[in-house]
Amino acid sequence: MKRRSFLITTAATAMIASAGLPAFAEEPLKVGFIYVGPVGDMGWSYQHDQGRQAIEAEYGDKVQTTFMESVPEGPDAERALTQLALEGNNLIFATSFGYMDAVMNVAAKFPDVKFEHATGYKTADNVAVYDAKFFQGRAIQGTIAGRMTKSNKIGYIASFPIPEVIQGINSAYLHAKKVNPDVEMKVVWAYTWFDPAKEADAAAALIAEGVDVVMQHTDSTAPQAKAQEAGNVITFGQASDMGAFAPMPRVTSTIDNWAPYYVQRVGAMLDGSWASGATWGGIDTGMVEIGEISDAVPAEVKAEALALKDAIAAGTYHPFTGPLNKQDGSAWLAEGVTAEDGELAGMNFYVEGITAELPQ
Amino acid sequence: MITLIKRPTPSKTWSWATPIVAILATMIAGGFLFAALGKNPVEAIRVIFWDPLFGPNAAYFRGQLLVKAAPLILIAAGLAVGFRAGIWNIGAEGQYIIGAICGAGLALAVYPAESVWLFPAMVVLGALGGLLWGMIPALLKIWFNTSEILVSLMLVYVAQNLLAYMAFGPMKNPQGFGFPGSRNLQQYASAHNPELIAGTGAHWGVMAAIVAVIATYILMHRHLAGFRIRVAGEAPRAARFAGVNPSRLVMVCLMLSGALAGMAGLFEVAGPNGQITDGFNSGYGFTAIIVAFLGRLHPIGILLAGLLMALTYIGGDMAQLMLQLPAAAIQVFQGMLLFFLLGFDVLTNYRIRIGKGAKA
């Protein structure tokens, strides 16, 4: 309790100090970011930084953004967030799941600072959460993979067995299976979000097992490079477009486009309408973007993929539509029933047909 | 012609002067690095070394300095004893993890029972876990003459996998919606390692670090056992004649350093970090090796070195935020410190003679 009041006093002092400045020079809204990786990872953190730059481009002098990169989850994140708050940032984006408890701790100490936490589930009056429906992109990837695989083996480099990743594996598998009943899914758990060496090893292992499609839920381009070496293996850009590897091996990509959301939230701060909440955006809001489908994809497959994308965007098709069973054969969704967001958010099982075992 | 001439005995003066010279050299070389990145070098050095101590909001950062330094000092104090004896425990990171798992495991098993005995019991279990993990390389060395360097290092990776297994499996928060990570011990009163004096950052781990410094000082410099340990490191044969049992020495050194590392892990998981997560270990066990050498394997030196290392972390974060220096540049800066230390260490054991080479 004491510590809380100490910090509030410090923050208040800082605010009084800044309020003492000439009032005609309007203070810009200060927006801070912490990234879990380097901004140059060309994947997750890079995309968040693109969102930050979009804020600057949109609001110019009215905002001032800063960021800290490669902030480890845990106490270091808590310190970094406190530091951003002490520096007078009014809105702080914490862009990794593992920052969750740190955000909650710091948010409690700085009730006047607003926090936005990516991919988490804890909210407060001054903490909003946001995430993207990446599984929508996986549906399109699965369709292309199912159509294009010759060995009928699809490899998946998974990061951590958390709902977001499991949704992706299930969605990719279901849609590959839909167009090609013979497909088989091989999953390798890399236990990292970003580690080029590990990701390359995982890709090499999958390719050695005969897969000719490599999907990745990790952020480096190392699997793309391995696939390129191997020749007839296709991949999908993850988080960012990874267009340097087009047209082969990268045939399309799922891009996390945080810019529209970030611009909107900063706008809400500027006009005073910011409110806490939970946002789960998809293809419809532009948060999930499908990168250009390259010429390596046959025209009819491309048309099929684009039609699927349009159906998802229009809301006429949901990637998880019954009848669907769980891996153990028990019923999950009845005919025509679609999965609810809340249920997906906690997804901890494979769908029927995946033979791999989910690490517990 | 520059020649190195071995000193008959290591120079006392240089042994204490090298860390200071190394720090100055790091500041100069780092200054050039920052200048090359287009930042004002003087300002960067000021932000890293001065601002966390005396800048605005220093009251908060001074506390954080203790939070960051405590585990480093606690681990390094134990490692230094072994290093003096020529027993190289490189696996403190693993012992740190196991300590955290054992201590937190107890709390998670009895949750939500409240008892004043819980936290002390967790500390004991944490120390015991680290001790046993440290005993593995000791026993293998005694029985099979394996290298404790390799075995202790490899056990870090085993511990890391065990940690991931715990975070995703048995210790996963049952109320965590399928997300990895244990319950947060900060929200469990009996298990929490809180700040003892609000606003100072000082938790039980800081106290333990201070006690460890005093205890190892007495052991190494005021006690016959310490003399034997040092002799064993400097002149193994002489030590054997003096009645030192090498097997027992290996056991004692690895168990002591393991126990201290395990305790450090427990204090961290129950305090600043709060959770068992797959990324719980943030390299303290490895950084502590640098701290031990930077502190000349002397308890007081380690105390100062731990604080200095913490300062470069916290100041480095500040430099990132205030000057938008890339995180990688800060890491290079930290690496330089060890590089220069080892480089200037030559002067402890050698004299430089400039001019004609020594007689042929």
State the secondary-structure class of chain B.
Answer: mainly alpha
Rounded radius of gyration of chain A (Å): 22 Å
Unreliable spans of chain B: none
Mean pLDDT of chain B: 90
Strand arrangement within the widest β-sheet of chain A reads 2-1-3-4-5-11
General shape of chain B:
globular
CATH fold-level label of chain B: ABC transporter involved in vitamin B12 uptake, BtuC
Kindly provide the name of the CATH class of the largest domain in chain A.
Answer: Alpha Beta
Low-pLDDT runs of chain A: 1-24
Query: How many discrete domains of chain B?
Result: 1
Separate helix tally of chain B: 15
Multimeric state? heterodimer
How would you classify the helix and strand content of chain A by structural class? Answer: alpha/beta
Strand content of chain B: under 5%
What is the helix tally of chain A?
Answer: 11
Order of helices and strands of chain B: EHHHHHHHHHHHHHHHE
Protein name (chain A): BMP family ABC transporter substrate-binding protein
Keywords (chain A): Signal
GO cellular component, one term (chain A): plasma membrane
GO molecular function, one term (chain B): transmembrane transporter activity
Q: In words, what does this structure look like?
A:
- Chain A: One of its GO terms (cellular component) is plasma membrane.
- Chain A: Residues 1-25 form the signal peptide.
- Chain A: Keywords: Signal.
- Chain A: Residues 30-309 form the ABC transporter substrate-binding protein PnrA-like domain.
- Chain A: Pfam families: Bmp.
- Chain B: Keywords: Cell membrane, Membrane, Transmembrane, Transmembrane helix.
- The complex is a heterodimer of chains A (360) and B (360).
- Chain A is an alpha/beta fold and 360 residues long.
- Chain A folds into 2 domains: 2-132, Rossmann fold, CATH 3.40.50; 134-255 and 289-345, 3-Layer(aba) Sandwich (Rossmann fold).
- Helix content of chain A is 40%, strand content 19%.
- Chain A contains 11 helices and 14 strands.
- Chain A has helices spanning 2-19, 44-59, 75-86, 100-109, 134-148, 163-179, 196-208, 222-230, 259-270, 299-314, 341-345; strands at 29-34, 63-68, 91-94, 114-118, 127-132, 153-158, 184-189, 213-216, 234-239, 250-256, 278-281, 288-290, 324-325, 331-333.
- In chain A, the strands form 3 sheets. In chain A, strands 2-1-3-4-5-11 form a 6-stranded parallel sheet, with helices on both faces. In chain A, strands 7-6-8-9-10-12 form a 6-stranded mixed sheet, sandwiched between helices.
- In chain A, strand 13 (324-325) and strand 14 (331-333) form a beta hairpin.
- The longest helix of chain A has 18 residues, at 2-19.
- Residues 1-24 of chain A have low confidence and may be disordered.
- With 360 residues, chain B is an all-alpha fold.
- Chain B has one domain (40-324): ABC transporter involved in vitamin B12 uptake, BtuC, CATH 1.10.3470.
- Chain B contains 15 helices and 2 strands.
- Chain B has helices spanning 12-36, 41-49, 51-54, 58-84, 92-110, 118-144, 148-168, 204-221, 224-234, 236-241, 246-270, 284-294, 299-323, 327-344, 346-349, and strands spanning 2-6, 350-354.
- In chain B, strands 1-2 form a two-stranded antiparallel ribbon.
- In chain B, helix 2 (41-49) crosses helix 13, helix 4 (58-84) packs antiparallel against helix 11 and helix 4 (58-84) crosses helix 13.
- The two termini of chain B are 13 Å apart.
- Chain A binds chain B through residues 1-3, 6-7, 10, 14, 32, 38-39, 66-76, 78-80, 82-84, 86-87, 97-98, 101, 105, 121, 160-163, 191, 345-348, 359-360, and chain B through 56-57, 59-60, 64, 67-68, 164, 168-169, 177-181, 184, 186, 195, 198-199, 268, 272-275, 277-280, 282, 313-314, 317-318, 320-322, 324, 326-328.
